[in-house]
Write a structure and sequence with these properties.
The chain contains three helices and seven strands. It is α/β, with parallel strands linked by helices. It has a seven-stranded mixed β-sheet with strand order 6-5-2-1-3-4-7. A hairpin with a 5-residue loop joins β5 and β6. α1 crosses α3. The longest helix is centred in the last third of the chain and has 17 residues. The N and C termini lie far apart (75 Å). The chain binds zinc ion. The site of zinc ion has 5 residues, from β2.
């Protein structure tokens, strides 16, 4: 009897998350320099932190509902219906502070889809997923139905880490 070939398997799961946000691209040479917004879609791929095919007693890497709860919860609190502004974009920051009520989030990088994917992968996911025993392997941020940017983990975290930010919400209603 033939011995079947050994298969090396990597298990992961992907959860879609959706939110709306405004932004502008600092120093963009065309229309993306104007304040505008998108209906964003995020695809996050999650793997077990302990190993490539680690599953629980039920056979799950983690329950999908926990990924939604943690990551969509964070997105709802910080990016949904907020303006994402690069910290060096002082003109946009001064403007958004004058609007009442207001919700904005200061980014360490220009809020392109690439940098948003990177921020979710490197900063947000470790902050909200680590205690579940999983980590994000890849994050895709869809800015339109045709265009997405992808951030993929290819090594260990760099230090010092970027600190997880918070939305600024001013609402006296
Ligand atoms: Zn845009």
């Amino acid at each position: 009897m033939l011995t079947p070939p050994q298969v090396v398997t990597q298990l992961s799961l992907i959860r879609q998350l959706r939110f709306c946000a405004g932004h502008r691209l600092y120093r963009h040479e065309s229309k993306c320099a104007f304040f505008h917004g998108h209906n964003y879609r995020v695809d996050v791929e999650v793997v077990a932190a302990a190993g490539s095919n680690e599953v629980d007693a039920v056979g799950r890497i983690v329950d999908f509902s926990l990924i939604k709860q943690r990551l969509l919860g964070w997105l709802d609190a910080h990016w949904d219906h907020a303006f994402l502004i690069f910290q060096d974009d002082t003109n946009a920051l001064e403007s958004i502070c004058r609007v009442v009520p207001t919700k904005y989030f200061v980014m360490p990088w220009n809020p392109t889809a690439e940098n948003m994917a990177r921020y979710l992968l490197e900063v947000v996911a470790p902050g909200v997923l680590t205690d579940l025993g999983v980590m994000a392997r890849q994050v895709a941020v869809w800015e339109t139905e045709e265009s997405c940017a992808v951030a993929t983990r290819v090594g260990d975290p760099v230090s010092p880490p970027v600190l997880l930010g918070s939305a600024v919400i001013v609402d006296n209603r």
